[in-house]
């Protein structure tokens, strides 16, 4: 075996990261759909039920469940129940199928609690939009950016609900594209507010806003084009969102610290506290455990964890706008 001598520290780090990613992907590959007993169960189910005109209940057909997908769902839970009942207890009795845990559906929804918590986020953005409309005057220049933030949020959570209701290729892409747009818009409007690029003076600000807008649109088009035309790469998509999210989190944390030091008001520190909440909630994504009760998994809890910060964030935007408007009046 060759030693590490002659390998630069930078290259050594890259190789270690690559090895970690490879091991992570291998360890998290689905094993359930490769089980012989699962394959046999699906085969028998299709043979018995799918060639004799068997009809599913209406609510399942409305959500595009058909006989083969019903067999797949049923066999996932038959095999899971067999494995969990086996004695002595298996090390990992509950395994993933097609990249997902075997969830218990409700009214045909594949991941009911992810749908529910996505709905709560949707309602949080709707509340925020109403707050912005009611509390911030139409003449305030940043109001339109805050409204756009709300619309991007609404769209992302609508598509999240669709995806968690039924996991199809189309619903998955819409969910990822909408989430990416929402995250990137968060980065877009952060410098607009922090550095007040919406202002017309000095003269460099309108030009900076124009080029910043072009850059963000180009980045999103490139992102979507890569995923659509080149490679549907989950690792890249996750990394891109993490990088964009981290940059805006750093910007808002810096803004929070500097603004609190200047104003000495508790609400000025809210962005930094909200960022800390989001980072802690994001840690739930690392705890990939089998769903509790067959319904509540780490991903659904991550969705639940973003409801509070969303409500809090809109309250900050309103307080910040009022402070800004009050300052402008004093200057006048």
Please report the total strand number as a whole number: 0
Low-confidence stretches: 1-28
Approximate strand percentage: under 5%
Radius of gyration: 24 Å
Helix count, DSSP H or I runs of 4 or more residues = 12
Shape: elongated
Structural class from helices and strands?
mainly alpha
Distance between the termini: 75 Å
Q: Average pLDDT value?
A: 87
H-E order: HHHHHHHHHHHH
Walk me through the topology:
Elements: H1 9-27, H2 36-49, H3 58-62, H4 67-85, H5 112-135, H6 143-165, H7 169-194, H8 204-230, H9 234-263, H10 270-282, H11 298-305, H12 307-331
Helix pairs in contact: 2-4, 5-6, 5-11, 5-12, 6-7, 7-8, 7-9, 9-10, 10-12
Report what the structure shows:
With 332 residues, the chain is mostly helical. It is built from twelve helices and no strands. It has helices spanning 9-27, 36-49, 58-62, 67-85, 112-135, 143-165, 169-194, 204-230, 234-263, 270-282, 298-305, 307-331. It is elongated, with a radius of gyration of 24 Å. The chain starts with 8 loop residues before the first helix and ends with a helix. Mean pLDDT is 87; it is low at 1-28.
Properties at a glance:
0% strand; 332 residues
Concise description?
The protein is an all-alpha fold. It contains twelve helices and no strands.
């Amino acid at each position: 075996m060759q030693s590490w001598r002659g390998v630069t520290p930078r290259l050594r780090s890259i190789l270690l990261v690559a090895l970690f990613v490879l091991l992570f992907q291998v360890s998290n590959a689905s094993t359930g759909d490769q089980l012989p007993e699962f394959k046999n169960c699906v085969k028998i189910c299709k043979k018995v039920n799918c060639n004799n005109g068997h009809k599913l209940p209406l609510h399942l057909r409305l959500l595009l469940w058909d006989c083969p997908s019903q067999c797949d769902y049923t066999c996932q839970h038959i095999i899971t129940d067999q494995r969990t009942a086996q004695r002595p207890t298996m090390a990992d009795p509950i395994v993933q199928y097609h990249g997902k845990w075997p969830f218990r559906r409700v009214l045909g929804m594949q991941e009911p609690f992810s749908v529910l918590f996505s709905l709560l986020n949707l309602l949080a953005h709707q509340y925020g939009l109403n707050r912005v409309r009611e509390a911030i005057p139409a003449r305030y220049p940043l109001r339109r950016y805050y409204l756009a933030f709300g619309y991007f949020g609404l769209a992302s959570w609508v598509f999240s609900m669709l995806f968690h209701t039924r996991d199809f290729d189309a619903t998955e892409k819409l969910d990822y594209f909408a989430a990416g747009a929402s995250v990137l818009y968060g980065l877009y409007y952060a410098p607009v507010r922090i550095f007040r690029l919406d202002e017309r003076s000095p003269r460099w600000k309108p030009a900076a806003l124009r080029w910043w807008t072009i850059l963000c649109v180009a980045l999103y088009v490139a992102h979507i084009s890569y995923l659509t035309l080149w490679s549907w790469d989950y690792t890249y998509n996750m990394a891109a969102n993490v990088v964009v999210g981290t940059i805006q989190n750093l910007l808002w944390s810096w803004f929070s610290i500097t603004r609190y030091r200047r104003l000495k008001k508790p609400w000025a520190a809210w962005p930094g506290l909200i960022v800390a909440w989001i980072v802690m909630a994001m840690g739930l994504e690392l705890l990939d455990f089998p769903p509790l009760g067959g319904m509540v998994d780490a991903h659904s809890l991550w969705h639940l964890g973003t409801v509070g910060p969303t409500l809090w964030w809109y309250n900050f935007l309103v307080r910040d706008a009022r402070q800004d408007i009050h300052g402008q009046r004093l200057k006048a």
